[in-house]
């Protein structure tokens, strides 16, 4: 006896001759006509995207795809070496690193922007309050600061410029800039808006729900990781990485207990 | 003491002010200028893609993104329900299903096309030989046949038409069509070229190495799965799926041994 | 130039003739002498376990291994069907479901027990406070309640009896029982301690850190999932599951937008 | 309309008061009475194991759990650093490396042993044939050779001694020894049986199906990885690994294309 309510799906249906995705005929309307980014937005939002949405999502996807030999990339290369016949597993291993430490700050920043936009006292007062409470707690503000890109993350102004060249409401970008001003004032020094902070604002402008923003990073990174797998297949690094790490981390003897 | 040769990477490098990907300045040349699909091709091949490459890769990425409640989608929805704070894990779980049973046939078909294109006796003779040896072994020819899309997979002619409208060498498509003709002749009935067969030919035309073709499907499916995660977050199905499966598969008592 | 402090590892080292794990010679002292559970405790804690630790960890590992066609099991069976040559991927897909919704409550309950044990006002007052604040917030108390095992989870008394038959300090068990009494009093009805609640207390008694308790469930479930993979290989269910789910969840048309 | 035959499961069933696993009452017969290894064998084979099966499986599980900073361990530590709130994802990432390159040789060796045991011409002739065909193909014989443990893998004689001290049929062990003799003769030098070769023979002796042998390694490694996660949580290495790898692998400039 079923006790759970029956769900439905609005994403896709098919029969022998037709596949419909989000109300569109895949063959007649989408293949050869939509780009990947348009199709991703249709899949996610259920609506044909505007050119502005496409351009902004492309900017975010391009920004997040690649940043060298990151933890995700190293994991992917090692797992590909261990299981070369299951490429999907190597990609999955790397994607499991798209977690709270790095990319999750995008969602954290988006939550702060939403909090500011809903605050009855206005952007400035709430931004100051956010900066103060993070400083007091000794916690970094999500979307701000970068270990290498100092004093400024070079991606951020370019990302914001892309959005500002488009027809967007601008509320999330305005909130991010206000938060940046208050962070600098409260901390008494300039702290860069980083690429995840800019991504949070851009994705907010085009209506990507905060709860699946991490999914945008997952998609972008999956493409980046496939590129690393191909390079790994042509010029293997995994055995070298293994040896290098093993030598770099010494064994600390403990008494047998 | 290092024993492994030192590898290098040609993908990316960065300093505090600059990020270079495949020889291009990410900020100055790519963000806001390249689409996701262009960036993916640059990341994978190391070269700026041609419009033809972009258009064909988009067609493949759009085709493979979504096909309803597949095993990958079901796995993703169940894992999202079990670990909603780790969206990347739900995507990874579904991507682990981009394996040999379904998508892997793309690589198998690509290998047959490569075999034909390298055969000294020519396409037709080798295609006939391939069809015969599969029939004798009782094995399906990779890239042919579909359980639901009969007699023809509707995606295939559209995908081929997209490629034929572009400036491509056409060798892989010609090989696929020849193989199709010989499969029909040898089996004595029409067997559709399916979407993975068409994908193999299209990706071959634009120079995607056979060994990472599965990666194209992984990227496309990652976007599809993010769409399902968002729908799952709005209208949960996982508890219903669990209950439905549990009721549909009865327990078969065995004696305690 | 290295900026990060160099870590060390105390887990293992080896040369051509010897492998040492936690200070013990793997060949001379462990293989053929230690059980899996003893080795797991040595690996995790760095110390040879007591018989009490082994017996209690065995009880938890046995309890959590199997509970029928759970979301994790369904995901594993579907992924095994999609990628049968990568068994590790099918196990990994299922393990990704050992997340916050079900198993994570073990850690949540352990945190409550630690809070009680550290409370200056004593167990009873803090237990009452915990029960009250959960009731007011309308949130379930981690480690309490079960959708099917009502009014009582049959595993719990047995697990507690195993621990009480051993030489353990008993502080975590006492805390759990006090919390149970206060939950019943505050909610005005009996709410069962479930198996994750009992696991939290038992693992606390033997010194397993709260932060890796989920790892115990991961290990136990990995064995359970391997059993399901073998049954799936002998009597496939994945195609049936796919069809069943696809039929049970109808498509909800939306207008093309 | 269902088209797939309805499967059943013989693993578990439950109602509000009872959970049965493989025909046994979990609470009355297993918790507090079975060890993890006994429960794993029951789960996998459907039968209560003999003491010999338990002792041999324990020897294999203990052998494979830990071997220092392997690719799986490095992947797990990096992913744990990136997503510390999803411990299961870190374990899964490492387990994805239990693939064909290292552990998969266990299954390959088991297949060779099965081939020998089924050969009408007898063990010796088939072993010689196997060694010859691998030598001619320039391929290593699965289960033989080790990059570090030369001339002999120290685990192997100990593992075989454990099995020989038990009441086992001895057919798989005899086959492995015969294969070893022929490998040495054909290659003209001593090649060690490694731990995966010994594991293949031991698991064959106790009736573990070749097709799920990799699952034994997955279970064993999952415990090893949890130990590394705990050490990582106490003494982080991931940022150091990242920096070390990034510095050790130089960027190779390519012209922008």
Automatic annotation (TrEMBL), chains A, B, C, D:
Alphabetical UniProt keywords: Lyase, Transferase
Family: Belongs to the citrate synthase family.
GO molecular function terms attached to this record: acyltransferase activity, acyl groups converted into alkyl on transfer; lyase activity
Organism: Ramlibacter agri
Protein name listed in UniProt: Citryl-CoA lyase
GO terms (BP aspect): carbohydrate metabolic process; tricarboxylic acid cycle
CDD domains linked: CCL_ACL-C
NCBIfam families: PRK06224.1-5 (NF004868)
An annotated GO cellular component: cytosol
Transmembrane segments: none
InterPro entries named among the record's database cross-references: Citrate_synth-like_lrg_a-sub (IPR016142), Citrate_synthase (IPR002020), Citrate_synthase_sf (IPR036969)
């Amino acid at each position: 006896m079923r006790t759970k309510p029956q769900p439905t799906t609005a994403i896709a249906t098919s029969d022998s001759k037709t596949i419909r995705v989000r109300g569109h005929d895949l063959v007649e309307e989408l293949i050869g006509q939509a780009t990947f980014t348009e199709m991703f937005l249709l899949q996610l939002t259920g609506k044909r995207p505007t050119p502005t949405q496409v351009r902004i999502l492309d900017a975010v996807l391009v920004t997040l795809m690649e940043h060298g030999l990151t933890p995700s990339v190293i994991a992917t290369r090692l797992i590909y070496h261990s299981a070369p016949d299951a490429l999907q597993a190597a990609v999955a291993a790397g994607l499991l690193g798209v977690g709270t430490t790095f990319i999750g700050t995008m969602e954290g920043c988006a939550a702060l922007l939403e909090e500011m936009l809903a605050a009855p006292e206005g952007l400035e007062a709430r931004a100051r309050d956010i900066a103060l409470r993070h400083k007091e707690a000794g916690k970094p503000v999500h979307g701000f600061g970068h270990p290498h890109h100092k004093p400024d993350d070079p991606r951020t102004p370019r990302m914001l410029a892309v959005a500002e060249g488009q027809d967007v409401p601008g509320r999330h970008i305005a909130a991010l800039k206000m938060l940046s001003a208050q962070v600098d004032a409260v901390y008494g020094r300039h702290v860069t808006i980083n690429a995840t902070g800019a991504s949070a604002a851009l994705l907010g402008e085009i209506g990507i729900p905060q709860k699946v923003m991490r999914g945008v990073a997952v998609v972008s990174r999956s493409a980046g990781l496939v590129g690393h797998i191909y390079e790994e297949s042509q010029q293997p690094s995994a055995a070298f990485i293994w040896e290098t790490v093993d030598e770099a981390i010494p064994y600390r003897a403990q008494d047998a207990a």
